[in-house]
Design brief:
Layout: H1 2-26, E1 29-35, H2 37-40, E2 48-52, H3 65-73, E3 78-81, H4 94-103, E4 109-111, H5 115-118, H6 130-141, E5 144-145, E6 149-155, E7 158-164, H7 186-197, E8 205-209, H8 216-219, E9 226-229, E10 238-239, E11 243-244, E12 246-247, E13 251-252, E14 259-263, E15 266-270, E16 288-294
Parallel strand pairs: 1-16, 2-3, 3-4, 4-5, 7-8, 8-9, 9-15
Antiparallel strand pairs: 2-16, 6-7, 10-11, 12-13, 14-15
Length: 295
C-alpha cells in the first residue's frame, strides 16, 4: 500500500510540475508602464508603444496567432522588437516571419538584431548568411531594421526618433555568454552611439533600441528618453523576493534582467522576453509583452 501511495504521489507531483512548466512558458504577461504627458508633451498624449524581445523561434499558437492577437488588443502605435527573434539552434525562421507578418498589420514594426541573429553563418546553398536572408524577408514585409541608424516617424500629433544599435558592436566571438563589460570596447561603442545620435533632427521623443541591457550607461549618452532592451530572459529562473538567477553578460543574480532602470535622462525597460534559449524552462518568469503608455 505504501509503495502504491508513493507512486501515486510521484505521478501527481510529476503532472503538477509539468502543468506548472507549461503554464510558466506559455502564459503571456503584459507589463504596463505609464508616463505623464506633462513630461513628454501634449503632442504625444495617448502614445502606446509595445516592446517584444527574445522570441527564440517560439510559437504561441499556430503561426504565432495568439501572440499577435494579444499585441493587437493593446492597440499600439509602434512596435519595437529588440532582437533574438531567431535562435541559432534552428535553421528555419518560419515562426518569426509568421509573427512579423501579423505585427506589421497592427502598427509599424522596428527591429534590431540580437546575438542569435548575429550568430548565423553562411548558407551552403545560397552562399548568403542566414541573417541576410532573414533581413530580406523582414524588409519585404515592411519591418524597419535599424542597424546603427535611426528613423523619424510621425505618431499621434508628434514626431518620434527611433535609434537602433547593431548587436555586433557588443559581441565578443566565443565569449558572449560569459563576457564582462571590460571585454567590450566601450569607447568604440560610445563613438557609434554618438554617430547614431547625430542622425536627423530633434523630435518630441527619442527611443533607443538595443538588445543587451547591461550597457545602459553607454546607451544613455544618446540622450534617449526611452531605451528598450531584452537578452536577459528575466534571469530565466526567478526566485520570489530575490529575482533572476543568471543572465548572459551579467552573470549570477543579474541587476538588469527585467523591469525599469533609470540612468541619466534615459528610462530603460528590460523585457523578460518570450521564448527560451539553451535552458528550456522558465520558472516564476512568464513570457512578457511590455506596453509603455504616455497619458
Amino acid at each position: 500500500m505504501m509503495k502504491k501511495t508513493l507512486s501515486l504521489g510521484a505521478a501527481i507531483g510529476a503532472v503538477a510540475l509539468g502543468a506548472m512548466a507549461y503554464y510558466g512558458n506559455n502564459k503571456i504577461d503584459v507589463t504596463e508602464h505609464s508616463y505623464s504627458k506633462e513630461d513628454f508633451g501634449e503632442n504625444l498624449d495617448g502614445l502606446r508603444m509595445v516592446h517584444l524581445s527574445d522570441l527564440q523561434m517560439k510559437s504561441f499558437g499556430q503561426g504565432n496567432k495568439k501572440l499577435a492577437s494579444r499585441v493587437k488588443s493593446l492597440r499600439p502605435d509602434l512596435i519595437f522588437f529588440t532582437g533574438d527573434a531567431l535562435d541559432r539552434r534552428y535553421e528555419s525562421f518560419d515562426n518569426a516571419i509568421a509573427l512579423m507578418e501579423k505585427l506589421v498589420d497592427i502598427a509599424p514594426v522596428f527591429f534590431v538584431d540580437g546575438n542569435h541573429e548575429r550568430a548565423f553563418v553562411i548558407d551552403d546553398e545560397t552562399k548568403q548568411s542566414m541573417l541576410e536572408i532573414f533581413h530580406e524577408e523582414l524588409k519585404k514585409l515592411g519591418v524597419r531594421i535599424l542597424s546603427n541608424s535611426s528613423e523619424a516617424v510621425k505618431v499621434r500629433n508628434g514626431k518620434i526618433r527611433i535609434m537602433g544599435l547593431d548587436e555586433k558592436e557588443v559581441m565578443i566571438p566565443g565569449k558572449n555568454r560569459l563576457k564582462k563589460r571590460e571585454d567590450v570596447d566601450l569607447g568604440s561603442l560610445e563613438e557609434t552611439i554618438r554617430s547614431i545620435k547625430s542622425q536627423g533632427d530633434d523630435c518630441d521623443l527619442t527611443v533607443f533600441l538595443a538588445h543587451e541591457p547591461q550597457f545602459i550607461k553607454e546607451y544613455s549618452t544618446s540622450d534617449a528618453d526611452f531605451v528598450f532592451s531584452g537578452h536577459a530572459h528575466g534571469g530565466q529562473v526567478r526566485i520570489p523576493f530575490i529575482g533572476g538567477i543568471f543572465a548572459p553578460g551579467q552573470g549570477f543574480l543579474p541587476q538588469m534582467s527585467e523591469g525599469v532602470i533609470v540612468h541619466g535622462r534615459s528610462i530603460m525597460m528590460v523585457s523578460r522576453g518570450l521564448g527560451n534559449s539553451s535552458f528550456p524552462v522558465r520558472v516564476f518568469n512568464c513570457p512578457e509583452i511590455i506596453l509603455a503608455v504616455i497619458e
